[in-house]
Amino acid sequence: MIKKINIIIGLGITGVSCINFFLKKGIIPYLMDINPTPIYIKKIPKFIPCCFGSYNIQWIKNAKLIVISPGISIFHPMLTLAKKLGIPIIGDIELFCLNTTTPIIAITGTNGKSTVIDILKKIIHKYKYNIGIGGNIGYPALDLLNISRDFYILELSSFQLETIKSLKAYIAMILNITEDHLDRYPLGFQQYRNFKLQIYNNANICIYNNSDKYTYPRTFFKDTKYVTFGSKNCYYKLYINNNNIFLKINNKTILNFKYTKLIGIHNYINVLAVLCLTDQLNIPHNHVLNIIKNYTNNPHTLQIINTSNGITWINDSKSTNVGSTKAALKYLYNKKKIWLLLGGYDKNCQLHLLKNYINKDNIIIYCFGTASNVIKSLYPKAIKVNSMKEALQQIHLLVKYGDIVLLSPACSSIDQFKNFKHRGKEFINIVKKLTTQ
Length: 437
Prior knowledge:
By secondary structure, the chain is an alpha/beta fold. The chain has 3 domains: 5-90, Rossmann fold (3-Layer(aba) Sandwich); 95-293, UDP-N-acetylmuramoyl-L-alanine:D-glutamate ligase; 303-435, Protein-Tyrosine Phosphatase, Chain A (Alpha-Beta Complex), CATH 3.90.190. The protein has helices at residues 13-24, 57-61, 77-84, 92-98, 113-125, 158-161, 189-197, 265-280, 285-293, 322-331, 355-358, 372-378, 388-396, 420-435; strands spanning 5-9, 30-33, 50-52, 63-68, 89-90, 104-108, 131-135, 151-155, 171-174, 205-209, 225-230, 236-241, 244-249, 252-256, 303-306, 312-315, 338-343, 363-368, 383-384, 404-407. Strands 7-8-6-9-10-11-12-13-14 form a 9-stranded mixed beta sheet, covered by helices on one side. Helix 13 (388-396) runs parallel beside helix 14. The protein is globular, with a radius of gyration of 23 Å.
């Protein structure tokens, strides 16, 4: 009789958490990674069977369960074969949901997830709840199972939502849905959106963005509570008057954003989402607003890093898609000359959608990375360079008092950097050297 095995594919931090999960259950998993030398190879016990550098088709055929890391596409031919053989294919979030009865707050969106969860963490840690936060935010969900909590907050990417079946969130929220990761989805944007919408499945409370039709649930159920936020007419909304932007709840003004440290209307909408969610947890407004008034943007998100000589240098490296770069340019729409750094790996997203935002006399584009040819073809006035460093060196010689230099790439960083944080740190280091010469 052929021995049936549990397989883990992908050995990043998620893969390691899956290994530890199985070992605690007394199960020895089989491990595979296309990388011949996975980054966490030293964390793997020697008694565990491993296949590195390729996929083992015989193992796949003998599998009773396959657990994939978020970076592994469910459309890979090996997984297509496994699916045809009737082998269950899940991710760590599905394992997590199957092994907890603690209420889950699940949050997704193309942009803003990390900011919203960071604000929530600061609010809830100073309130009465004991929470665990994990998922796409950098802490594996399975590692949260070690300690008892009042509830969990999970940041979920479309990749993680591809393989969920058992998620029954107490609160499920989608902040926004714009084009991203289209290199992953053969059927394009609608397929990406469909995976995002799976977060609503079996949720008690669904929260969505009234200003973004793509976040609307496909089906509304009478036993589910639906709450909306946005800039249109709804219970939680933004109101603009005389260049002031206010947060209103049930038409009552709660906050004037000029008294906060937040930058950008997209972050004001993030605050709406936070108020919307904390109200469901019965956390008082005065407690929530005290945190919000003192909250500053996350690093690499419209982060002003230098203003010497009247020139503003802004690190928005976390803008890895078109929607996020649009938000940055909306915030800076009435400013003076903007030197915009675009480029990286574009994930097949439609960079032409930036046209109305960057085809302006006051914006000068420098492009780099694998997307530079596409950017140059779409925007012939763009100046193509080999690297971000080269762009900054050229810009430094040309900028004048009142100008803005903005790194908001609209692309992933993986062609030239480890991740967006690495790209942002390099930007900061280069600017620091240039401005202290």
